[in-house]
Specification:
Layout (H helix, E strand, L loop, with lengths): L4 H16 L2 H6 L9 H13 L5 H10 L12 H10 L2 H21 L7 H7 L4 E10 L1 E2 L16 E8 L5 E7 L10 H7 L4 E5 L6 H9 L3 E5 L7 E8 L3 E8 L9 E10 L2 E7 L9 H9 L2 H13 L4 E2 L4 H29 L8 H16 L6 H6 L25 E6 L2 E6 L12
Parallel strand pairs: 1-5, 2-11, 5-6
Antiparallel strand pairs: 1-3, 3-4, 6-10, 7-8, 8-9, 9-10, 12-13
C-alpha cells in the first residue's frame, strides 16, 4: 500500500502529543536521542501494520528511499532495526497507547449522531461503565526478523488478557502472560486491581470462579456470565417463570473454601427448543431487566471481533520476534493501531448516523487504499467523508443486515404474548415500569 499523506498527517496529529508526553520517561530509561528513537519506532510499527510491509528488510528500504509517516528518509542498517525491535522498551509503547486512549474517548463523546444500543443506554443509566473481559492465545511466531530463522514453526507465543469498553469499543487494558497455556484465572488479580465500583463486567466462562465473583461483589463490581452445564443450583426466589423466560435468584456452591456459597440471579431465555442461561450478580430485575442481561451478554462477542481484527487483519497472530519484550512491543503497537481504526470507524458511523455495529472495520482498513488513490487524483480529501459517500458504498463499509430488527424489552417482569408464531415481550400490566424506556 502506498503512503497516503492525509492519513499520515492525521496519525501524526493524533499521536504526537502522546509520544511527546513520554520524552521524560524515555530519558529516565537511559535511552539516548539516537536515530531509532521513540517517534521513529512508533512510525515503524504503525507502517508495518498499516501498509502491510513484508518485513524489516523492506521497511529498511522504505526508510532509506521515502521515509514513512512523520519520518524523513534515513540510512539505517537492517541489522540495527531488527535489533531495535528486539530490545526497544515495550513499556514506552504501552504508555503512548494509554496516553492516546483518553483522547479517543473524548472524540467518541463529541459525536452524537450514531445511535447507541438500547441495552447499553439503559445499563449506563445504572452503571458508570460496562466492560467486556476475555483472554486470547497468541498462536505462532512468524519469522519476520532474521533473528527468528531457527525458531520452530507454529510455536505458541503467549496469552493476552483484554478489557474492552462495550460502549466505545476502545481497549481499556491489555495484560500479557508468556505461558500460552496459562489459565484465564491468572488474570483475576489484574482485573480486581483495575476495576472500580459501579462497573459492570461481561465475563467469559473462563472466569467461572466463585471466590473471584465474591471479591468482585465486595468491591461493588457487578458481572454477567454464563452458567456452566450441569451446575447444581438452589432456587431461592422466582421473579418470572413462563414459556420462554425464567428469572430467579439462586445459590451456587458447596460452602467449601474452593467453592463457597454465592447468591446470584439466573436468567434463562428460550430460543426454539434451546434454553440460554445467564448469571448476574445484579439481583434486582429493575436494576438490570432480564432481556437487557441477555442482550448485553450477546454483545460480549464484540471482544471476539476485536481479537479477530488485531490477530487476523492486523497480523498479531504472526509475531515478529521471539523475545518477551519484542512480543509486548508488537502487542502494544497493534492495539494502538486498532484503537485508531476504531476511532475512524466510529467517525464514519456518526457521519452516516448508523450504529457502530453496522460498520466493518476490515473494509475500512482495506478501503484506505482506495481513499489514497482517490486523494491522489484530487477526488477526496477526508477519509470519513469518502467512506460515507453514497457512491463508495460498494466498498462494503456498511455491513449487510443479517437479522430483522427486534425491539428490546426492558421491563423487569415481562410476560409473553403469542402472535404470528413469534414471541413479543410486553410489560406486565400489574407491575409498573421503573425504567425510563418504554417497551
Amino acid at each position: 500500500m502506498v503512503e497516503e499523506e492525509v492519513i499520515a498527517s492525521q496519525l501524526e496529529a493524533l499521536l504526537t502529543p502522546a509520544i511527546t508526553a513520554q520524552e521524560n520517561y524515555y530519558r529516565q530509561l537511559g535511552l539516548r536521542d539516537r536515530i531509532l528513537n521513540l517517534p521513529l519506532m512508533v512510525a515503524a510499527v504503525l507502517t508495518l501494520l498499516w501498509r502491510d510491509v513484508a518485513g524489516v528488510r523492506e521497511l529498511t528500504r522504505m526508510l532509506a528511499r521515502e521515509g514513512f509517516l512523520w519520518c524523513t528518509p534515513k540510512q539505517v542498517s537492517q541489522q540495527a532495526i531488527s535489533q531495535r525491535f528486539l530490545t526497544f522498551p515495550a513499556s514506552l509503547f504501552e504508555k503512548v497507547f494509554k496516553d492516546l486512549l483518553p483522547q479517543l474517548k473524548a472524540a467518541w463523546h463529541a459525536r452524537n449522531s450514531r445511535p447507541i444500543p438500547e441495552s447499553v443506554q439503559f445499563t449506563l443509566s445504572k452503571f458508570e461503565r460496562v466492560w467486556i473481559v476475555d483472554c486470547s492465545t497468541l498462536e505462532a511466531l512468524f519469522r519476520k526478523l532474521g533473528s527468528l530463522e531457527n525458531a520452530p514453526k507454529g510455536q505458541l507465543a503467549g496469552k493476552m488478557g483484554t478489557v474492552i469498553d462495550l460502549m466505545t469499543r476502545l481497549p481499556i487494558e491489555i495484560w500479557f502472560q508468556s505461558n500460552p497455556r496459562a489459565s484465564d484465572t491468572l488474570f483475576e488479580e489484574d482485573i480486581l486491581n483495575r476495576v472500580t465500583a459501579k462497573t459492570l463486567l461481561v465475563l467469559d466462562r473462563g472466569f467461572y470462579h466463585f471466590r473471584f465473583w465474591l471479591k468482585l461483589i465486595e468491591q461493588e463490581v457487578d458481572f454477567i456470565t454464563r452458567l456452566k452445564k450441569g451446575a447444581s443450583i438452589q432456587v431461592e426466589q422466582v421473579f418470572t417463570d413462563s414459556y420462554a423466560l425464567r428469572d430467579r435468584i439462586i445459590r451456587l456452591g458447596s460452602g467449601t473454601k474452593k467453592t463457597p456459597f454465592v447468591t446470584l440471579r439466573l436468567i434463562e431465555v428460550r430460543s426454539g427448543k434451546t434454553w440460554h442461561s445467564y448469571l448476574t450478580s445484579v439481583l434486582d430485575p429493575t436494576m438490570l431487566p432480564p432481556y437487557v442481561v441477555a442482550d448485553l451478554y450477546r454483545r460480549r462477542w464484540r471482544i471476539e471481533d476485536a481479537f479477530n481484527t488485531v490477530k487476523r487483519l492486523l497480523g498479531l497472530s504472526y509475531l515478529w520476534t521471539g523475545s518477551l519484550n519484542g512480543i509486548q512491543l508488537q502487542i502494544w503497537g497493534t492495539w494502538l493501531f486498532y484503537a485508531v481504526l476504531v476511532d475512524l470507524g466510529d467517525a464514519v458511523a456518526d457521519e452516516l448516523s448508523l450504529p457502530f455495529d453496522s460498520i466493518s472495520l476490515e473494509m475500512i482498513y482495506r478501503g484506505l487504499y482506495h481513499f489514497s488513490v482517490a486523494h491522489q487524483k484530487g477526488k477526496a480529501t477526508d477519509p470519513v467523508k469518502y467512506f460515507a459517500a453514497p457512491e463508495n458504498q460498494d466498498l462494503g463499509i456498511v455491513k449487510q443486515p443479517r437479522k430483522p430488527f427486534v425491539k428490546l424489552i426492558v421491563a423487569p417482569f415481562p410476560e409473553i404474548q403469542r402472535s404470528f408464531d413469534h414471541f413479543f415481550f410486553q410489560a406486565s400490566s400489574q407491575i409498573p415500569l421503573t425504567t425510563g424506556i418504554q417497551p
